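Support request, priority: normal
Reporter: lab tech (M.K.)
Component: structure prediction queue

Hi team, I submitted a job for Cytochrome oxidase small assembly protein from Xenophilus arseniciresistens yesterday, and the status page still shows it as pending. I've pasted the exact input below so you can check whether something in the sequence is tripping the parser. The sequence length should be 36 residues. Please let me know if I need to resubmit or if it's stuck on your end.
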Amino acid sequence: MTPEQKRKNRRMALTLASIALLFFIGFMVRMVVLGR
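Reply from support: The job had stalled in the queue. We restarted it manually and it finished. Here are the results:
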């Protein structure tokens, strides 16, 4: 695996992780709002 491929893989992983984090935060916010 070339350094270029590693760089692209790391960037893709960060992108997917940030999307998952956003979904999780959105879910938590919705639980708090609907919990009231």
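The helical segments are 3-35. The mean pLDDT is 96. Let us know if anything else looks off. Ticket resolved.
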